[in-house]
């Protein structure tokens, strides 16, 4: 286009002619902000922060855009396959109990992965709490034991063995809820006792002797793992190492019930109802600071 033609245009239209535009200033080297890429799962769940991970997957916070609420998503990264993902989700979904994580949905093959959508539990797992804040006081361990026994009883009444009770799979929520998570190793109970798997999967530090020796998992092996978990919660140490004087002091009032839960013979191990009675009876366990001077005198 010639300048004569540009001049022929009305002034308000002259900018439309490329040659007539003033020269552009050179581009400034201003870095652009990173583009926010929202990772979506099944075009419904927006992925948020990474909350934790384990041998079988990564757990993320997320947002359910359809129901307008926060959720947690477990991205299954292991090579266990779809059947195992469904088995894990179905196991947890079978149980309705405030002490068991609520499964909301399963998404298969999104981003090439399988996902379990759960309620988002605010707080930290027991393992992290003990690592960061130190062992729990005996009254809190007693309360933890009662809640976990109630939750495990619900799992067992649903015909399942959890198979991996340990501090990393117990969530201490900010509102005081105690919740069992991770049903990745849950198994169907055959009869009212043990199942034979042949492979002792699970964390070696909490496996019952019969699971290690014979691959036998049952309600009793979950109780053994609970005993180990309570010991770790009360002392910050493993029951398989020599008990330090500090650990012995901390475990004092809970010693009998933990020992009964960790009986090496599943036939002689304490049952969940009996352990519940023993823990509920041990009301004398209370942190000293909670006692008024009068109550402390009366307790002598
Ligand atoms: N619903 C949830 N809400 C919040 N955090 C969670 C939830 N589920 C799991 N987590 C966190 O993510 C971590 C890993 O989860 P999970 O134990 O299910 O993974 P995993 O791969 O099966 O682990 P493992 O190696 O024990 O089998 C947990 O320790 C916990 O801190």
Automatic annotation (TrEMBL):
Residues 1-34 are annotated as: Disordered. It comes from Kineosporia succinea. GO terms for molecular function: protein serine/threonine kinase activity. ATP binds at residue 74. CDD domains: STKc_PknB_like (cd14014). Residues 23-34 have a biased composition (Pro residues). InterPro entries: Kinase-like_dom_sf (IPR011009), Prot_kinase_dom (IPR000719), Protein_kinase_ATP_BS (IPR017441). PANTHER family: MITOGEN-ACTIVATED PROTEIN KINASE KINASE KINASE 20-RELATED (PTHR43289), SERINE_THREONINE-PROTEIN KINASE NEKL-3 (PTHR43289:SF6). It is an enzyme of class 2 (transferase). Its EC number is 2.7.11.1. This is non-specific serine/threonine protein kinase. Keywords: ATP-binding, Kinase, Nucleotide-binding, Serine/threonine-protein kinase, Transferase. Pfam families: Pkinase. Residues 45-300 form the Protein kinase domain. SMART domains: S_TKc.
């Amino acid at each position: 286009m010639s300048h004569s033609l540009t001049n022929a245009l009305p002034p308000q239209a002259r900018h439309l002619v490329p040659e007539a535009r003033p020269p552009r200033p050179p581009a400034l080297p201003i870095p652009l902000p990173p583009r926010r890429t929202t990772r979506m799962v099944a075009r419904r769940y927006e992925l948020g922060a990474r909350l934790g991970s384990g041998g079988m997957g990564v757990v993320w916070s997320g947002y359910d855009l359809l129901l307008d609420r926060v959720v947690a998503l477990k991205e299954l990264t292991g090579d266990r396959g779809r059947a195992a993902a469904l088995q894990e989700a179905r196991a947890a979904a079978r149980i309705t109990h405030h002490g068991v994580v609520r499964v909301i949905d399963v998404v298969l093959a999104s981003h090439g992965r399988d996902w379990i959508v759960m309620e988002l539990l605010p707080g930290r797992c027991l393992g992290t709490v003990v690592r960061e804040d130190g062992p729990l006081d005996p009254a809190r361990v007693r309360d933890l034991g009662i809640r976990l026994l109630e939750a495990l009883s619900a799992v067992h009444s649903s015909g399942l063995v959890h198979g991996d009770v340990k501090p990393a799979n117990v969530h201490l929520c900010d509102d005081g809820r105690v919740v069992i998570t991770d049903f990745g190793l849950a198994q169907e109970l055959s009869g009212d006792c043990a199942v034979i798997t042949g492979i002792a999967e699970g964390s070696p530090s909490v496996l019952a002797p019969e699971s290690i020796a014979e691959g036998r998992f049952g309600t009793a092996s979950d109780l053994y793992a609970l005993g180990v978990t309570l010991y770790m919660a009360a002392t910050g140490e493993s029951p398989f190492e020599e008990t330090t004087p500090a650990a012995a002091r901390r475990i004092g009032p809970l010693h009998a019930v933990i020992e009964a839960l960790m009986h090496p013979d599943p036939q002689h191990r304490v049952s969940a109802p009996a352990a519940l009675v023993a823990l509920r009876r041990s009301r004398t366990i209370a942190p000293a600071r909670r006692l008024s001077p009068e109550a402390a005198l009366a307790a002598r």
